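Lab notebook: predicted structure, single chain.

Context: the supervisor wants predicted structures on file for every construct in the current expression panel, including those that have not yet been purified. This is the next one on the list. No modifications to the sequence; it matches the entry in the shared construct table.
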Amino acid sequence: MAQGFKEQKVGDSVGSELTMADVPLGPFAGSLITVYSAKSKAAKLHGSRQCSQLRTSDVMTAKVSLDEAVLRRLCMRCAARGAGGRPGTGLGMFLLAIGETGLLCHLQSYREPDEDEGWTDHEARGAAELLRVQQSLDGLDGEDEEDDASLRETREEAENLRGLIFSHWCGARGSLLEAEALLTYFPWVEEWAKPSLRIKARYLETLRAQAARFVDREELVVAAAAMALSMPELPCADPAFAVLGGNSRVSSALVRLWRRWQSTAARIWEGPGPRAYLSYEIVRGIRSNQKGRGAARAEAARLIESWEELARAAAAPVDRAPKRRLTAHVPHASDGTPRHVLTDFLDGLDEWTLGVLVTWAVQPGPGSGVLTLEVPDLVAERLLGPASGLPCSPADGTADSPKHEGRTGSEPGRLRPGVFDDTPVFDRCPVTLDHIRALRTLAPTADPLYLVFSASGGAEVLPLNTLERRLTKGWLGVLIAGASDLPASVIGPEEPEHNHDSEVRATQLPGRGQDVHDPHFGESVGLAEGRHRTLRQTYGTEARQLNLRLLALARGAHDLRSLDAGRPSGLPMEVWHGLLTEDRLNLAPFRKPGSNRRGSGSALPLGPLAAVQLYTTNANPLIEGKGHSPLCRHAQHSAAVVRGDDLLAVADLMARTASDWCSKCGGYALRRLTETQLSYYRAAHRLHDIKEQLHNQTGIPDADPSAVIASLDELATWQPVDEAKWGGSDSWQWQETVRELTRKAARSHAVTMPS
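Prediction complete. Output recorded below exactly as produced.
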């Protein structure tokens, strides 16, 4: 957009002010919402306990049915922010999109001239005429003509008004498009909004007509012709340019002059006069008293004039009549772009394109998400070309077709209860690609992870990107819950438990001297420590709550690589640290016995630990590059685990004979142990410790033999914490090891008994 068009101001509303209570609730009428208030029947209701208008320490909480009366009691701040519905739900997105910073704001803006910056149609016509006359004078008088102070001031005022009118036209067009885009999600509101849309459309047409007065359509076609011209043969051997240097320097200077002239043609506010001043460019850097400088500049001026004649000849009168019908593809919120990052669709367009739009745009009726243009051939070729700043295509005859009447909220893509956890699960509607795009558009804080269900895959935890990819391939399923839907009573307190200080936690790491019989042995690799790690690295109450929920959902994913959302809004690193650890398991109990009986393995079965997952950037030692933990700062991606990483199990690691691991991180990250896996890990280390005691050089255990036998009796009854079946060869091998050690302990007990 031109520099003068940056400032935008919303027009004042007319008539009575619209409020949330005026908006039809449609299928969301009667939905239960949680409200907060002071202890008074007349007290305002608030959608958030943190609302700054809720000035009481004795807050009442209630669930009420959403209706007009409730909305009229809702405080203005909460109404403007769409508070009342949980973010990410259908109701939450509805209230946020309709709220006084959403649809209501657009319906009440750009309806009439602004009181502070208002102008009359007569003033707009006069400013346009003054600038047109002045542009002609610029072309005649050359660069030596200087306006007096009064004329300069008048011209500046006219230019400011031109910028203001274009600014309001841009803002009004964007506001109308945004309102129409929001209504596509909530069709039951359309009929109610039509009067306001018609008022906005009429004012938009008024602004367009006023802006068009500042544009010379003949010059638009000439500019299009100029920008389309191929570079003519340049007079590099002309003696007039000898002052510039050798042939190569002359050629480069003339090519630059040509390109500068073509690019300047798009600056329609300046007209052809200022383009003649470009002759100065050819002698830039040459002393004013140097011989040949004036001749070079004069010849450059004649050259520019010849290019102007070429452009005007190309823009013959027959080519200046509108013949072609184009459709300008206008990006708006329905494309899945979050509303809070959406920029004005006219932002960045050059003066020429803006002039074309206000001159030849066919005013669409409410509901149109495109601009239809009727333009001359030369203009059409420019708009359809690769250099166009506005994506266009030949109109297919359907762009202006009226919308289908009688649409209902049951159409795919319309936001309604039953898609985003507004109803019981058995009443859910299948999610569609349009639903996901609506979620991205209307819920800027949409959950990165969702629990979904489909007949083909059952219950799964998926990021939104994966869900989108599946939907494009025909996947059929429903959303069960997002991370923010998980109940706080299940997630637990947000603050980390302070049952161990940092020194005690350090001793819990494998290989740091902690007694294997300590009940907290190995705690650092368990799920509980993962939760503490996430909380310690997260700041802010809301962030803690969300990260705990994300952590709980992510733990349900079978393969953490499936959580790679491929975008910056994926899982936070604090959550990844709760899922993974770079601490190592001490696998001595599961290794085969060696020649050195002291410190050798016990050949215990891996059991529940066999399937524990390890993630690495490169598991193949034959492929160049060391394997890194996804948490390592040397990993070649910003997220933690991504789809391209390798997955191993502890059983695979035990079977490997060669690896090329990073010396800093150890090469891989371990998925934190479940309660059953951690329980077995501790039991195996206790059994291995007893075995080493019984196999010392004297054959006499270090501990009391009776205590050892009692520990073995306890280990013989070990069962998975989740009551899964503990049988097969692993159970048999475990029991056989316990029986053998019990016999040795009994013999040691007999030896040590007094005679």
